[in-house]
Every structure is written in structure tokens, then in C-alpha cells.
Amino acid sequence: DTEVTQTPKHLVMGMTNKKSLKCEQHMGHRAMYWYKQKAKKPPELMFVYSYEKLSINESVPSRFSPECPNSSLLNLHLHALQPEDSALYLCASSQLQGYNEQFFGPGTRLTVL
Amino acid sequence: GIQVEQSPPDLILQEGANSTLRCNFSDSVNNLQWFHQNPWGQLINLFYIPSGTKQNGRLSATTVATERYSLLYISSSQTTDSGVYFCAVRTSGSRLTFGEGTQLTVNP
After folding, report:
1. Any CB–CB contact under 8 A between B93 and chain A?
2. pLDDT for A29-39, tens place per residue?
3. Would you tell me which of A7, A48, A61, B99 could form a disulfide with A56, CB atoms 3.0–4.6 Å apart?
4. Phi, psi of B80 (to 5 degrees)
5. Phi first, then psi: what are they for B74, rounded to 5°?
């Protein structure tokens, strides 16, 4: 099974809301990633978790807060977002950080009003 | 950092035609992946091919690591092949660097 799942598929939120994106994989992978993708652009790396510890933060604003409760789950908590944060948010996993093939989830399409 | 260039940026084909997509990269890589992003945004893994040649049905890929390029071949294209094709590479670090993609449209 090479599946990464993400919920919700779509999310609309106001600038004062707090919401969370969820990602799950059951492949036994120990590295998980959050990417942000704007229209007609490639995905951009936001965060990397390795063995449930934050390994890389690509200077992402603090209104995005990642969390890795266990080796299968990855959350992205959203608070006080701006309209320019509207994008497709993709989760990915790989067996180890820095090696191996990355597998992506279907994404959450976020709209900030 | 490493530069990844994909060509062509846009490609329009009639159903049944063949095509070749190219990915050039500026440094040695230890990983290279080809993805197809469908119109709903899902990134589908096509090939994990840091070197050599692989085939999967109508698709095949070749990476010549010493010359820093990879090619994706699509034969007998179908309308469901439409979407964006991304090449992504990784050097010694953990970051997967994506090219800008090739937008493929297959018309019936």
C-alpha cells in the first residue's frame, strides 16, 4: 500500500479562524513532509519531520504550526491566515528523510477569505 | 542550490501521438522522480529513477546521471494523460527540488 491520505479535501476559512489539516500514512515511513503549491507552480517545501521530530522548517510564518503526534500522523494547524495563503497543501512521506521515493497525498485545497 | 529545467513548458497532442519530456539538472543527484499531477491536484508517482531506464506500460523513463538529464517518454497518448508532469531531484540534502513542470494537453 503506497497511500497517503489527507483530510479535508477542501477547506474555506476566515482570517480569524483556527483550523487543522490532517495527513496519515500506514507505510511505516519515518519521514513526513508538508508542501504548499500555488496555481501553475511546483510544490514548495514547508516542513520536514523525521522520526516524529521537526527536522526542517523552511522559514514558514508562525501562523502555520506543524505537529507529528505519532509516526503515522502529521497535522498542520492554521491560525490567522491571510488570503495569500490560499493554495493546495500537500503531505508526503518517505521511508527515511533524504533518501527513498516520496509519496504524496491528494492534497487539501485551502481558501482563505 | 540545484537548478532543474523542464522542457517543453507546454505540449499539445492529438490522442495516439508520442511525446518526449526532458528534465535537465545542474548538479549530481542521488534521487530523481517523475510525477504526473492530474487536474484534481493529485501527484502520482510515475518513476523513481536516479539512473538507468524503466518502463511502465505506455510510459518509460531514462536518466543519464553523468550528463545530468532525464527523459520521460509517453507513447500512444490518451486524454487521461493530460495534466502537469514534474521532474524532481534530490542531492545530498533532504530537499526534493521540483522543475516548473510540463503542461500536457491531449485532445481527442
Report:
1. yes
2. 999 999 999 99
3. A48
4. -70, -10
5. -120, 120
